[in-house]
Write a structure and sequence with these properties.
By secondary structure, the chain is α+β, with helices and mostly antiparallel strands. The chain is built from 14 helices and 18 strands. Helix 2 packs across helix 3, helix 6 runs antiparallel to helix 7 and helix 9 packs across helix 10.
Length: 519
């Protein structure tokens, strides 16, 4: 790196121009690299329509480039450390540039245009040529591409460039607009995105007329509430109206929706002990299947005044997104899960308790509140009550000599993993399969040390995609190796990294005077 303080204003501008040139050249180089990888991952790698395990129509991705394996995007996502959606866009853009729009690729490689303008041309012309499965003569596409490049080199803005290029194509092929609209409709979906301070966005792709109608309806109801005296800001009212229209809390004809709460507690947190003159109970609600989770901060070390460094495990989450303590209490109250005796199962729902190792953070056992109370009262059957004998009364579910996991194994593995374990995938565990990491037909056991949560797509990838390798350690650390040899590791959310064990002389927290309760 150069020290920019030594440059004149003209020198700084020159450096910015050089950086823009390099970005364009790198984008062009990235496109040919991705296109070559796609060439080596042909559609022949995928299962045929007749073979079991083929993606179900209506569920499998519809954005797979022509002639390319459906799992290319998953490999790109792992290698580049990006989301599958971003990887799909990268694959599409690269193949369009290299296969369909070589003149645009060349202009990008020569730094005549920048990546945003190249992407605008790709968005307008990609997939239209007959060579890419479209219905437009390649000569027509090339003619429009040449005109678009003239506009791009002249400095047309990316948004306007895309509009003008699309219009130029329609002028030569009137049906192009309808085909693009129908293709866009097939790609619509509803997604969520966490923002900040416990907030999030609900994003729905739809045609513009429908989007405008939805927004106007929400706005009209919000203004009615404002006219009736509601003092909240109009934006907040619109948000509440939309939520009510979707959730319909007044509609009693539909099946009720409840929650399955989980309490995730490190073993020392099950004690209550004085800290600075107060009694601090441990444990907090959690929901590894895609629901509510919160874990309390580690207790302070008695006597030396130190506090355990906090990390992301101290944060309450809903579906993986952090929320505030106040929101957490509101949620529990709405679910009617707080009572004078502590947490209870919501009406129609369940309450489970996950017990974690205090040092490694590894999940040791899952249990319901009634069962935990029974075990606490019964104590060890082989020793007198009140004796701290150290005998195990709880542990993870044992292995079974069959293919199908037991209900206890389902609860344990989903509580341990909380999401699909494939790198970068955040699908909640409640909507995943329990998969044998080492295939059962190859001698893999039906044991929690050989089971992990994988969504149906990544379950299919592991089972049917050639040259992918999955291995898992006894504590649930999953290692995934792509056909190109890239290796990525995922850990159960609360499992400490090896470095954390050195924080306090081999412990993940300061020494505790109280021994954890026996298992």
């Amino acid at each position: 790196m150069l020290e920019p303080r030594g440059f004149s204003d003209a020198g700084l501008v020159g450096e910015l121009g050089a950086l823009a040139d390099v970005r364009a050249q790198l984008a062009a180089y990235e496109a040919v690299v991705v296109a070559e990888l796609a060439r080596r991952r042909p559609v022949e790698w995928d299962l045929s329509e007749e073979e079991p395990g083929r993606g179900a129509e209506g569920w499998r991705p519809v954005r797979v480039p022509v002639g390319v394996s459906e799992f290319l995007a998953d490999e790109l996502a792992v290698v580049a450390g990006i989301s599958p959606t971003a990887a799909t866009v990268l694959a599409e853009r690269s193949l369009v540039l290299v296969r369909e729009l070589p003149a645009t690729w060349a202009a990008l490689a020569d730094s005549l245009i920048d990546p945003p303008r190249a992407n605008a041309i790709v968005a307008a012309l990609g997939g239209q040529s007959e060579s890419a499965g479209g219905r437009v003569d390649p000569a027509v596409v090339a003619e429009v591409e040449a005109q678009a490049l003239e506009w791009a080199v002249a400095g047309e803005t990316p948004r306007r460039l895309q509009e003008r290029t699309a219009a130029a194509l329609i002028a030569l092929d009137e049906a192009a607009a309808d085909r693009r609209r129908k293709q866009a409709e097939r790609l619509t979906d509803v997604t969520t995105r966490a923002t900040a301070d416990g907030m999030g966005e609900l994003i729905a792709g739809m045609s513009m007329p429908v989007a405008v109608a939805c927004r106007e309806t929400v706005d009209a109801y919000a203004r009615m509430a404002k006219a009736e005296g509601d003092v909240r800001p109009i934006g907040q009212l619109r948000t509440q109206v939309m939520a009510d229209l979707i959730l319909r809390p007044w509609d009693t004809t539909r099946e009720p929706v409840t929650a399955h709460l989980r309490v995730h507690a490190p073993l020392p947190a099950l004690h209550t002990r004085p800290t600075n003159g107060r009694v601090t109970p441990g444990g907090a609600p959690s929901a590894p299947g895609g629901g509510l989770r919160a874990s309390g901060g580690a207790p302070s070390s008695p006597g030396d005044g130190r506090s355990v460094p906090r990390d992301d495990r101290d944060t309450a989450t809903v579906d993986g997104a952090p929320i505030t303590a106040g929101q957490l209490r509101e949620l529990l109250e709405q679910l009617d899960a707080i009572c004078p005796g502590g947490l209870q199962a919501p009406t129609g729902g369940t309450l489970g308790i996950d017990l974690a190792d205090p040092v490694s953070g590894a999940l040791r056992a899952t249990v319901t509140r009634p069962k935990l109370e029974r075990l606490a009262r019964r104590c060890c059957p082989d020793h007198p009550a009140g004796t701290d004998c150290g005998c195990a009364v709880l542990d993870r579910p044992p292995a079974v000599d069959r293919y199908t996991p037991t209900p206890a194994q389902y609860r344990f593995v989903r509580a341990r993993d909380r999401t699909c374990r494939h790198p970068g995938c955040r699908r909640p565990a409640a909507r995943t399969d329990l998969d044998h990491v080492r295939a059962h037909r190859d001698g893999g056991t039906t044991d929690c040390t050989n089971l992990c949560c994988l969504c149906r797509r990544h379950h299919r990838l592991k089972t049917h995609a050639p040259r992918w390798r999955f291995t898992m350690s006894d504590d649930g650390v999953l290692t995934v190796t792509t056909p190109s040899g890239a290796t990525r590791t995922t850990r159960p959310p609360d499992l400490q990294t090896p470095a954390a064990f050195q924080l306090f002389g081999g412990r993940s927290s300061p020494p505790d005077d109280d021994d954890p309760p026996p298992f």
